[in-house]
């Protein structure tokens, strides 16, 4: 069973990396093989899916879609550009804003919100938009790691380790992943400043974007407060995060229908939902559960323990920097899902807190995607937007910005997590 399961998983992974087929289609095809070969039963497959994570993803994405519609992010971006002394500082301000938005909004959506402002600025000032869009993409990837709702890998970690919204700030009385990311953001934005400071052109103010409605912003704030309050509820409710997120997603859809005085716009939001990522997430949960069932993840944990010579620092270093390397080339969602059971088993065998390895895994996997143009979906989208406008982003053009940015952010986060959680 181990051989067949590992073959199915590796083959599907290769297809995910090299094939242009839908990621969801490839992953579900692998699930079908697992069911047909009776490696998993339908019941096991159903319960392998973390429905709390799925509900959280759906609700958050619905609220984020309405937040984008409201034009509040574009309004804030234009405001920052108008206050900047020159083009370099304006681009840096846009990148910082992108990183802040991506704390609460999915990274690709953040790029789609903010990139048009940077493109318009570059066009007006007759400068290349390539550094700006690369900066926006990698900044959004950086901060998406900081909170429970920023990115799917963070949601996956929360589901696996039973973390609530506040646990990303303080966990077991110690500073958590949020502070590791924010400390790493400081040197990484210094790197961006050094890259952008050559743009000395004066910024020409453009017409301000009008805000359509502040209601989605209020819904986003209330959803965050609701998720944060779960830690203080007097009773434990299963799938509480999913319930809160879906509730605000539903309220948002009802408001959208009321705002337009018809249901068609809300139906359009549901139709245009990111079902590809949703189905992909569900399938990956099932695929990883098959690896756990046949014992492959136990084997991998044992191999990593032997590589680390039983030394916690070596094990932690391997987890972080191998994750950085692999995530520069492969999707971090299946990687994080597959590795979380491994880090927990490894931590238990070494007698250390699983939080150290889990947080190190998340930092390495999420920030490693910033190195190359294919390392994260946000990078691919940014490069695609540039290509449509006649700008070609070479592999090394991206690496020249992404690599120093990643090393700066990961190194500081890596040291911080070791000091706090060893």
UniProtKB/TrEMBL annotation:
All residue ranges annotated as the Citrate transporter-like domain in the record: 13-364
Pfam families on file: CitMHS
Key words of the record: Cell membrane, Membrane, Transmembrane, Transmembrane helix, Transport
Keyword Transmembrane helix recorded: yes
Topology within the bilayer: Multi-pass membrane protein
Membrane-spanning parts: 24-41, 48-69, 89-122, 177-196, 211-233, 240-258, 278-297, 309-329, 335-352, 359-381, 401-421
GO MF annotation list: arsenite transmembrane transporter activity
UniProt-annotated location(s): Cell membrane
Chief location bin: membrane
Source species, domain of life: Bacteria
One cellular-component annotation, GO: plasma membrane
Family the entry assigns: Belongs to the CitM (TC 2.A.11) transporter family.
Protein name: Citrate transporter-like domain-containing protein
Organism: candidate division WOR-1 bacterium RIFOXYC2_FULL_41_25
């Amino acid at each position: 069973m181990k051989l067949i399961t590992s073959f199915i998983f590796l083959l599907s992974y290769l297809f995910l990396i090299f094939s242009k087929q839908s990621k969801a289609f490839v992953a579900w095809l692998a699930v079908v093989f697992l069911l047909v070969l009776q490696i998993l039963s339908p019941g096991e497959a159903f319960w392998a899916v973390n429905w709390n994570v799925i509900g959280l993803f759906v609700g958050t994405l619905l609220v984020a879609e309405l937040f984008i519609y409201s034009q509040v992010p574009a309004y804030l971006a234009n405001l920052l550009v108008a206050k900047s002394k020159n083009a370099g500082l304006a681009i840096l301000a846009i990148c910082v804003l992108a990183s802040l938005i991506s704390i609460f909004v999915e990274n690709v959506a953040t790029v789609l919100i903010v990139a048009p402002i940077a493109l318009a600025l570059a066009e007006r000032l007759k400068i290349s938009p390539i550094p700006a869009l690369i900066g926006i993409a990698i900044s959004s990837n950086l901060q998406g790691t900081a909170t429970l709702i920023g990115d799917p890998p963070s949601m996956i970690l929360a589901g696996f380790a039973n973390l609530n919204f506040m646990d990303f700030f303080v966990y077991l009385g110690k500073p958590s992943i949020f502070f590791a990311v924010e400390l790493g953001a400081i040197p990484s934005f210094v790197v961006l400043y050094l890259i952008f400071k050559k743009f000395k052109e004066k910024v020409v103010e453009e017409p301000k974007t009008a805000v359509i409605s502040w209601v989605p912003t209020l819904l986003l704030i209330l959803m965050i407060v609701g998720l944060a309050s779960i830690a203080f509820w007097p009773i434990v409710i299963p799938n509480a995060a999913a319930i809160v997120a879906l509730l605000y997603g539903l309220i948002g859809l009802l408001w959208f229908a009321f705002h337009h005085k018809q249901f068609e716009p809300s139906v359009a939001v549901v139709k245009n939902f990111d079902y590809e990522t949703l189905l992909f997430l569900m399938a990956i949960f099932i695929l990883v559960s098959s690896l756990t069932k046949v014992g492959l993840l136990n084997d991998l944990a044992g191999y990593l323990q032997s590589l680390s010579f039983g030394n916690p620092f070596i094990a932690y270093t391997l987890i972080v920097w191998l994750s950085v390397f692999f995530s520069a080339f492969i999707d971090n969602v299946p990687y994080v899902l597959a590795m979380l059971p491994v880090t927990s088993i490894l931590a238990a065998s070494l007698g250390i807190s699983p939080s150290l390895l889990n947080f190190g895994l998340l930092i390495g996997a999420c920030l490693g995607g910033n190195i190359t143009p294919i390392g994260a979906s946000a990078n691919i989208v940014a490069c695609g937007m540039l290509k449509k406008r006649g700008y070609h982003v070479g592999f090394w053009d991206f690496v020249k910005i992404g690599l120093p940015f990643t090393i700066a952010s990961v190194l500081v986060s890596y040291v911080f997590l070791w000091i706090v959680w060893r």
